[in-house]
From TrEMBL:
GO terms for molecular function: cyclic-guanylate-specific phosphodiesterase activity. This is Diguanylate cyclase. Residues 1-251 form the EAL domain. One of its GO terms (biological process) is cellular response to nitric oxide. The chain holds residues 460 to 710 of 710 of the full protein. It comes from the Bacteria. It comes from Herminiimonas arsenicoxydans.
């Protein structure tokens, strides 16, 4: 309860910040995007999203927090564009609860209008569990978001249990291969086979494929050879502050 009371105050107290992790074009190393990841700088120290996001989801606080994240991320991306950097896509994680509310399309439209960011430079990351909860409703909302021009990526892909027949007609642009498969690439033939299978599945469906959790040069080379399009992970960069990310854009 103490944590929950503090969490309620975190927005008014300006205790949240976003960190940004670059997404790289594996073939040429260009930064093509950034995933926004929330950090809570509470009076009692940093609290990891792994512990407060579930609480925020249970209590509904994820709704105002989600709006804050969306606004802050879009405003930051627009600021980088206005500063003259080559445009990148900003990716924001969405909880199923944010889709369940039903007004996510209006929220996104409003934030894009407010911040002046073009829809093509915003991507929403959802997990497979989102489509499992209410498929028809998720389909409808994601389709409307894509009509706005927003991109959709399927996060942690391979860990859920989505039917592959959904995927064929699911309104999605990118598959994000879950980091567990990437981590075990060198030691597990099964993981290597799964990664290759996801890449060819994605490409056959005309999707971009991104691998997350790349930590070693060996993993990087495997993914490059396997024609994975994009990558993200500590090998390239940890999630960093907006100031630090701007230094990465300058290189
Ligand atoms: O940022 P990592 O560093 O610790 O993130 C832990 C978990 O929290 C991940 O599953 C990530 O998707 C989730 N997360 C991080 N930021 C956000 C956010 O802004 N919104 C939601 N819904 N989840 C987030
Ligand atoms: O659930 P989602 O995929 O949105 O969460 C991304 C999480 O992965 C964040 O907690 C982020 O800090 C973490 N992360 C990003 N790159 C790496 C990496 O190379 N290795 C590990 N172990 N974690 C990573
Ligand atoms: Mn994510
Ligand atoms: Na993920």
């Amino acid at each position: 309860l103490a944590l929950l009371n503090r969490l309620r105050q975190a927005i008014p107290n300006h205790e949240f910040v976003l960190h940004y992790q670059p997404k790289i074009n594996l073939a040429n190393g260009d930064i093509i995007g950034a995933e926004a990841l929330i950090r809570w700088n509470s009076a009692e120290g940093m609290v990891s999203p792994g512990s407060f996001i579930p609480l925020a989801e249970e209590t509904g606080l994820i709704i105002p927090i989600g709006v804050w994240v969306l606004e802050t991320a879009c405003r930051q991306n627009r600021a980088w564009q206005l500063a003259g950097y080559a445009p990148i896509t900003i990716s924001v994680n969405l909880s199923s609860r944010q889709l369940a509310r039903g007004d996510i399309v209006e929220q996104v439209e409003q934030v894009l209008a407010e911040t002046g960011l073009e829809a093509q430079y915003l991507e929403l990351e959802i997990t497979e569990s989102v489509m499992a909860s209410d498929v028809e409703k998720s389909f409808a909302l994601l389709t409307r978001l894509r009509l706005l021009g927003v991109k959709i990526s399927l996060d942690d892909f391979g860990t859920g249990y989505s039917s592959l027949s959904y995927l064929k007609r699911f309104p999605v642009d990118t598959l994000k291969i879950d980091q567990s498969f990437v981590r075990d690439l060198a030691t597990s033939q099964d993981s290597a086979a799964i990664v290759k299978a996801i890449i060819s599945l994605g490409h056959n469906l005309n999707l971009t494929v991104l691998a997350e959790g790349i930590e070693t040069e060996e993993q990087f080379q495997f993914l490059l050879k396997s024609a994975c399009n994009e990558g993200q992970g500590y090998l390239m960069s940890r999630p960093v502050s907006h100031q630090h990310f701007e230094l990465l854009l300058q290189r």
